Amino acid sequence: MIDILRREFIYLWYYFDIQFRQIAGYWIAGILIGSFISVFAKDSIHQLFRRIDDQKFGLLGIIPACLLGIASPLCMYGTIPVAASFRRQGIREDWLASFMMASILLNPQLIIYSAALGQKVLWIRIITCFLCGITAGLLVHFFYKDREFFSFDGFEERASHDTDPNLFLRYLKNVGRNLRATGPYFFIGVLLSALFQRYVPQEFMTKLFAGDKAWGVLMAATIGVPLYACGGGTIPLLRQWLWDGMSYGSAAAFMLTGPATKITNLGALKICMGIRRFLLYLAYIMIFSFLCGLAVNLLIPS
Prior knowledge:
The protein is mainly alpha-helical and 302 residues long.
């Protein structure tokens, strides 16, 4: 019995070590770059959004709003108070919808993490998240044109943690917070990936996620809801599933529903949307991710 356990431990360590060494560089780079943006560029990004001229851009303002949402390094609990301050300064509802949707789905740190999945999957993630943000803005514009979609009562912009007068120490503290926040999820993700490699037959994963069938996309979209806890933690799992035959469309669906339905994001969104609009949000995410996954499979066969 002891020999069996020792053998299994060696196998798991082998898979864990390979995965860790292949992905850890992207994780560290994402933290270093994400912290740099958070410390030195976050305020500039938000000031740029405030300076967008409504008369000049009109509905097309959802495009820069979406791009600035992707560039913002804040989590959703940090994004909502910022969005509330934007609202008080007269920023349009459709722009806010695009900004917040994009901010939920993607940030500079997650872009670096996702490079570990390969260039093709990285671009699929960026483009589908951008389109999801744009579509959210369009829907709010056409269906809530003269009504408020968000309710930011009681939300105030939080004080920044990055206040150390020494810029280098300020940056190091931000890196430390990022390591503490993402580290446990990253290691759990690598461990789960090693367990999948050792104990889940490749044929099972291929049958579950591969091909152009709607079933694989639907399963990936559904699994993204309970499995997604941290962007960095899901990268090892996605990488393993792609190796096992997961289609690009299924990966796209997972990468949309995962962050969009992460429990911390849902709690924040429910507060500022109310139950009816919150349910509309959930329906939108599931339908968009499913259709988007089907479209990706048609355009980019695995």
